[in-house]
Design goal:
About 75% of the residues lie in helices and about 0% in strands. The protein is built from ten helices and no strands. The longest helix is centred in the last third of the chain and has 33 residues. The protein has one domain: MetI-like (MetI-like fold). By secondary structure, the protein is mainly alpha-helical.
């Protein structure tokens, strides 16, 4: 029950901070007395949160679909030869700075969400690919032989046996990918996308530390809330499977 309560607590704190940030003006005015405008008012924090979530959701779903598809493909006999290449390319996507991806993509794609989604997709792909491969390769051979002996086709064996057994590791990979994306999505504001990074970017350019703090606090609360949701999902998964939650580690 505690693990199911945690996401609710963080979600309440996130919503309270998003809708109540402007009411904290006296606090920020006291913390930063030299600032004429201690609270970011160009856009509502709730709207920034929704825009940030939309960007994270789009890039996260794409990273999940593509990453799982790559992981499945390279663990099949016909795709095993490409496993090293897939792991190398996905690792390169994360080691390549998102800012550099944005700088390269903007001239051809223009300012807006498209280059931001591309950068976040590349940056969030590695954990999904690695964990999908790890989960599928750790399925016991005896289980695979039993499924084949029962007459399961390769696709049915993948769908009914391999993916359910690999699900905890795949979910963990998605969890890491999304949390990384939540923080990195703030950079999308540099290419004209409205996110929780907007007050941070303006705060840095205007030397307004209060703006930076407000954006950073909301991004941190969002990451904690989403992480708690993934933790609750894993708890429910193991409860339904009749296995201890400690199996995620």
């Amino acid at each position: 029950m505690t693990s199911l309560l945690r996401p609710c607590v963080w979600l309440v704190l996130l919503l309270a901070a998003s809708f109540g940030m402007t009411s904290l003006r006296p606090l920020f005015a006291a913390l930063f007395p030299t600032l004429e405008r201690p609270v970011y008012l160009q856009e509502g924090f709730a709207a920034l949160l929704l825009a940030h979530l939309e960007l994270v959701a789009v890039s996260g779903v794409l990273a999940g679909i593509i990453g799982i598809a790559i992981g499945v493909a390279v663990t099949r006999p016909w795709g095993a030869a490409y496993r090293g290449l897939a792991e190398t390319l996905s690792a390169a996507g994360q080691t390549f700075p998102p800012v550099a991806v944005l700088a390269i993509a903007v001239p051809s794609m223009g300012f807006g969400p498209q280059p931001a989604v591309l950068a976040l997709l590349l940056y969030g792909l590695l954990p999904v690919v690695q964990n999908t491969i790890a989960g599928l390769t750790q399925v016991p051979p005896a289980v695979l032989d039993a499924a084949t002996g029962l007459g399961f086709s390769p696709f049915r064996r993948l769908w009914r046996v391999e993916l359910p057994l690999a699900a905890p590791l795949i979910l963990t990979g998605l969890r890491v990918s999304v949390i990384i994306t939540i923080g990195t999505a703030a950079l999308a504001s540099t290419v004209g996308v409205t996110t929780l990074g907007s007050p941070i970017l303006l705060g840095l350019s205007a030397e307004n530390t209060a703006y930076v703090l407000q954006g950073a606090v909301l991004i941190g609360l969002l990451a904690l809330a989403v992480d708690a949701m993934f933790d609750a999902a894993l708890t429910l998964f193991f409860a339904g499977a009749g296995r201890p939650a400690g199996g995620t580690s």
